[in-house]
Design goal:
With 258 residues, this protein is of the alpha/beta class. The protein is built from eleven helices and nine strands. It has a single domain, classed as 2-enoyl-CoA Hydratase, Chain A, domain 1, CATH 3.90.226. Strands 1-2-3-4-6-9 form a six-stranded mixed β-sheet, with helices on both faces.
């Protein structure tokens, strides 16, 4: 995978990682591995005090690139998640440095899990959040089943999951999913301003605070990720996923019969 799929920039204690895979910034396994590598470096590098995650293009990320699975319905989702998203989400939560994300346009599926694993979230007015998994007959993974209800409440999370309707930027702000909404033209500057301010702060103490938050409200994160992987494998073998994936690849409405 070309390095250009994730751009890296570091200044003033901030490591900025920019998703740069046109047109949807969809993740494949190589892109996830690249992000894991950058976060591993950030953990070891004392000059990195804050990680800023952002994206080029009109949207943040469409999530997993389903074309990587080949469309034959034989993907081992448990193995896929255990290799890719489960360790990535754990890595993000266990990185004892703040992670700030700037979001424009849509964020869906596994990318929603990545966004929820960040510590702070800033969005533009056109930011929207789609659970997405139901669109291809799957259940949430990447800790979405844990993090989304924790942040916005179980009823709202169920609504977003079952109907697959987008959560708007205004809703996300009111429900605590976003920490701030800023004009689109100011998103980049605001994100850098926040990240730079964080980098000047007591990031060691912030890291310990993050450890406390994990213990207090996410003590079962690893267990949930493993359970999601198991259930996703079950869902992937059911009729809903077969029909949902076929409809997605054929660009038509799915016809669920069971």
């Amino acid at each position: 995978m070309p390095d250009e799929m994730i751009l890296r920039e570091q200044k003033d204690g901030v490591l900025a990682l920019t998703l740069n895979r046109p047109k949807a910034n969809a993740f494949d396994s190589a892109m996830v591995a690249k992000l894991q590598g950058f976060l591993k470096d950030a953990k070891r590098d004392d000059s990195v005090r804050v990680v800023l995650l952002k994206a080029n293009g009109k949207l943040f990320s469409a999530g997993q690139d389903v074309t990587e699975f080949g469309g034959d319905g034989h993907t081992n989702f448990r193995a896929h998640l255990q290799k890719n998203y489960n360790p990535l989400i754990l890595q993000m939560r266990q990185l004892e440095k703040p992670i700030l994300v700037a979001i424009q346009g849509a964020t869906a599926g596994a990318a929603l899990g990545i966004v929820l694993a960040c510590d702070l979230r800033i969005g533009s007015p056109d930011a929207r959040f789609v659970v997405g998994f139901g669109g291809i007959g799957l259940a949430p993974d990447s800790a979405v089943s844990l993090m989304l209800p924790k942040i916005i409440g179980l009823g709202r999370a169920a609504n977003a999951t079952f109907f697959n309707d987008p959560i708007t930027a205004e809703q996300a702000l009111n429900w605590g999913l976003l920490n701030a909404v800023v004009p689109s033209e100011d998103l980049e500057k605001t994100a850098w301003d926040w990240a730079t301010k964080l980098a000047k702060g007591p990031t060691y103490a912030m890291g310990i605070s993050k450890r406390d938050f994990n213990k207090a409200i996410l003590p079962n994160l690893e267990e949930v990720l493993d359970y999601e992987a198991h259930n996703q494998d079950v869902a992937s073998k059911g009729p809903d996923h077969k029909e949902g994936l076929a409809a997605f690849l054929e660009k038509r409405e799915p016809k669920y019969m069971k």
